[in-house]
Design goal:
Order of helices and strands: HEHEEHEEEEE
Oligomer: single chain
Largest sheet: 6 strands, mixed
Helix content: 10-25%
Number of strands: 8
Number of helices: 3
């Protein structure tokens, strides 16, 4: 069996950039995740960047190394000096990734739709995207400075466990 490595973050980035080139106004881009290998995780990595794990190394001495920790997200599509990154910071209000299909565990429930809303932290106005209730939203909760935004999920419960049956 051959192991597959990587993800579809490049495909997600290309799809978002195609929309941003076509529309010259602030927009929310909806992404159908059909065929995207990692689904929501690939969108988060493409948009905000990957989180690197930092593992301190013990070089000797009396002090033990510190604990491993997750660093900040880096190298997302919003970072950089290229025109695509600038365009994303200026025009992209949020992403609305979604997938749909027949409910896996209970087909009698019919169609299942999963969606999340991811706010662009580079936008100056934080709107928290309340219009999308009750879809889980990842929005800017506070700003530490011009370069650092603290994000949080709303509702605060695990968005993977969210379920709404009309």
């Amino acid at each position: 069996m051959r192991m597959i490595h990587g993800n579809d973050a490049d495909r997600v980035t290309s799809a978002i950039n195609a929309k941003l080139r076509a529309y010259k106004c602030p927009i929310i881009v909806a992404l159908d995740l059909d065929g995207v290998m990692g689904g929501f995780e690939d969108v988060v990595e493409a948009f905000y960047g990957a989180r690197k794990i930092h593992v301190p190394i013990h070089y000797g001495g009396a002090e033990p190394p510190g604990d491993a920790y997750l660093g900040p997200m880096e190298e997302g599509m919003l970072v950089g000096t290229r025109r695509d990154a600038t365009r994303a910071r200026e025009r992209l209000v949020a992403l609305l990734p979604f997938n749909w299909g027949i409910h896996r565990s209970r087909p009698e429930l019919g169609l299942s739709i999963s969606a999340r809303v991811l706010e662009n932290p580079a936008q100056g106005n934080t709107v928290s995207l309340q219009d999308f209730d009750p879809i889980p939203r990842f929005y800017v909760a506070s700003r530490q400075d011009a370069e650092t935004a603290m994000m949080q999920w709303q509702p605060p419960e695990d968005p993977k466990g969210w379920q709404h049956v009309p």
